Amino acid sequence: MKLNWLNRFFSPEYMVKPEHRLGELPDAKTAYKDVWHIALPSVIEMVLVSLIGSVDTMMVGNMLGAEALSSVGLPTQPRMVLLCLFFALNVGVTAIVARRRGEERQGAANMTLRNALMLALGLSVVLMVLATVFDRPLMLLAGGDQAESEKVLLDAMDYFRIMNYSLPINALSMCICAAQRGVGKTRITMWVNILSNLTNVFFNYCFIGGNLGFPRLEVRGAAIASVIGMCVGLLLALGTVMLGGKYKGYLHFSIHDSWKFDKESMRSIVRVGGNAAIEQVGMRFGFFVYARIMFSLGTAMYAANQICMQLLNLTFTFGDGLGVAATALVGQNLGRKRPDLSMLYGKVCQRFAVIISIVLGLVIALSRYRLAALFIGANTPNADLVVQYAGETLLVLAAVQIFQTSAVVLSGSLRGAGDNLYVAICSTFSVSAFRPAMAVLAVNVLGLKLTGAWMFGMSELIVRFLCFYPRFASGKWKDKTV
C-alpha cells in the first residue's frame, strides 16, 4: 500500500487528471529530466551564492565578533526594502520572457529585456540617492536606536552607505539574469553569480582583516568587497547578452537596437511586476518589523538570529532554484497552449521540493550546533551564548522545511502562470501581518526569547503553503494572460 501511494505521488500520470489532458504526457523519466535540466544549474547557483554569502558572514563573525555581525545585519532589511521593487520587476521579466519563448516571439522577449533594463536603471538611481540621504533614519528605524553600542550603529551606517552606491549595478545584473532564467538559460546565471560572489569572498579576505597588503577596513571592507563582486557580476551579465547575437543566444541586444519604451512590453511588465511589487513591499515591511523585534532581544540573541537567518536563506535557495524551473516551464508551456503540461511540471518541481526538504531538515536538526559555531570566532565575546541560542532556534528551521520549500516552488509555478495577484495577497498577509503579529505575541506578550519568537513567526510558512497548494491544484491560473 505504501509503495502504491508513493507511486501515485511521484508518477506523472496521476498529476494531471484525464479530463484536463490536451495531448500525450511525457513519461516519468522525461518529465523529471526536463525539470532537472533547468533546476539543477539554478539550484547550484543559488545554493553556492548563499553559501558564499554565509562565508561572508562567517568571515565577519570570526574576524570581528558579535558586534560586527549585528552591524552587517542591521542594514539587511533596509537594503532589502530598496531591492524589493527590482525583485518584483524581475518576477515579471522572468514570467514574460518565458511566455514569449513559448510563443516563439524572440523579438518581443528581447524588447521586454531592454525595457526592463531602462526601468531598472531609472528606479535604482532615484532610490540610491534617497537611501544615501536618509541612511541614519533608516538604520534607527531598523533597530539602531536599540543598539547596545554606538559602534554597532556607526558601522551599520558605513556598511549601508557603501552598499547603496552599488544599487544600479546590482539592479541591472539581476534584471539580465532574470531574463536568462525565463528562457531556461540557468547555467549562464549560475556562472555569473558564482564568479561574482567568489570575487566578493576574495576581497573580503583582503579588506576585512587587512591581508595580502590591503588595508584593514573591518565592516567597511566587507561592504567594499561586496560592491567589487557586484561590478564583476554586471560585466559578466552584460557579456552574455551583448555577445548573444554573435553566439546565437536567444537574448541579445546592442546599442544599435531600439531603446524606446515599448507600450506592449511596459504594459506586461507593469501588470505582472506590479502585482509582485505589492507582494514585495508588503513582505519587506513584515521582515523589517520582524527584524526590529529580533534586535530588541539584545546583541547576543540578534547575532544568533543573524546566523539562523543565514541558514534560513540557504535553505530557501533550494526552493528558489526549483521555483525558477517551475516559473520557466509553467510559462513556456502556457505559451505553447499546453496548460496540462504546465500543471505537470509544476507538480514535478514540488515533488523534488518534498525530497530536498526532508534531507535539509535532518541535516539541520542533527548538525545545528556545529553549523552555528561556524559563524562566530570561539574566542570572541559571548560566542558560546550565541551558538547556544542559534542551535536551539535551528530546530524550528528544521521542522518547517517541508512547508517552506514547497511554498516557494508553488508560488514560482503560480508566477509563471501570471497569477501574481493571488501570490501577492497571500504572501503579503502571511509575512507583513501574520509573522510580525506572532513575533510581537511571542516576545512582547508572552516574554519568549529567540527560539519562541521563531516558533511563532515561522508558522507563517505553513500559512503560505496552505494558500498556494490548493490554488495551483485547482488550475484557476490556466487562462491568465501576460
Please characterize this protein's 3D structure.
With 482 residues, this protein is an all-alpha fold. The chain contains 18 helices and no strands. The chain has one domain. The chain has helices at residues 2-10, 28-64, 66-73, 76-102, 106-133, 135-141, 150-164, 167-182, 186-208, 218-242, 263-295, 299-335, 339-373, 383-399, 401-416, 420-445, 450-457, 460-474. α2 runs parallel beside α13 (339-373), α5 packs antiparallel against α8 and α14 packs parallel to α17. The radius of gyration is 22 Å and the shape is globular.
Q: Could you write a compact summary of the structure shown?
A:
By secondary structure, the protein is mostly helical.
Helix content: over 70%
Strand content: under 5%
**Class of secondary structure makeup:** mainly alpha
Biggest sheet details: none
Structurally, the number of domains stands at 1
Unreliably modeled segments: none
How many β strands by DSSP? 0
> Would you tell me the overall average pLDDT?
83
The whole-angstrom Rg is 22 Å
What is the string of helix and strand elements?
HHHHHHHHHHHHHHHHHH
Tell me the number of helical segments per DSSP (H or I, 4 or more residues long): 18
Task: Based on Cα principal axes, name the global outline.
Answer: globular
Distance between the termini: 43 Å
